[in-house]
Specification:
Oligomer: single chain
Number of helices: 1
Strand content: 25-35%
Order of helices and strands: HEEEEEEEEE
Distance between the termini: 103 Å
Number of strands: 9
Largest sheet: 5 strands, mixed
Length: 157
């Protein structure tokens, strides 16, 4: 009978340890505060069925994209008119020509495009806005576009 009394506490201890292990495992997966684990605390890039998400802030008279690195694939550009004038977003390049609707100040819209490798022009197609500086370029499948590169053959003169 002494053996039966010894087994009961050992059995209860085993059940308690198993339950504690399950509780700790359930609580230990988060990344709070100063986590030293290998998990990244940065949110993953937003990529859904509508493609990788890119924000295009349209102001008077500038376009700011949320990323400068593009790989071939499907993208959804969210154009936000943060200026005082009407604006729109147009993307021209190897993947074709795509244009958003014209936005009043404060409005937003989305433009979903499939980008192929190559160089693209991104600009505001509203009359005269491109000439006022509402333009940029992107390179898909390579290094980010650089506006300071001189490709002329006149040795910098």
């Amino acid at each position: 009978m002494t053996i039966a009394h010894t087994r009961r506490p050992v059995l209860l201890l085993g059940v308690a340890a198993g339950g504690l292990t399950a509780v700790l495992a359930a609580c230990g997966g988060g990344s709070y505060g100063n986590s030293t684990g290998s998990a990244s605390t940065a949110p993953p890039p937003k990529s859904a069925g509508s493609g990788t998400q890119v924000t295009a802030q349209l102001t008077d008279f500038h376009i700011k994209l949320s990323t400068g690195t593009f790989q071939p694939g499907r993208y959804t550009f969210t154009a936000k008119n943060m200026g005082q004038h009407e604006h729109a977003l147009e993307i021209q390049g190897p993947g074709g020509e795509n244009r958003s609707k014209t936005l009043d100040p404060g409005q937003s819209t989305t433009l979903t495009v499939t980008l192929k490798s190559g160089s693209y022009k991104v600009f505001c197609p509203v009359d005269g806005h491109q000439d006022l500086g509402m333009k940029t370029s992107i390179t898909v499948g390579g290094a980010p576009a650089s506006s300071g590169t001189n490709t002329s053959n006149n040795n910098g003169y």
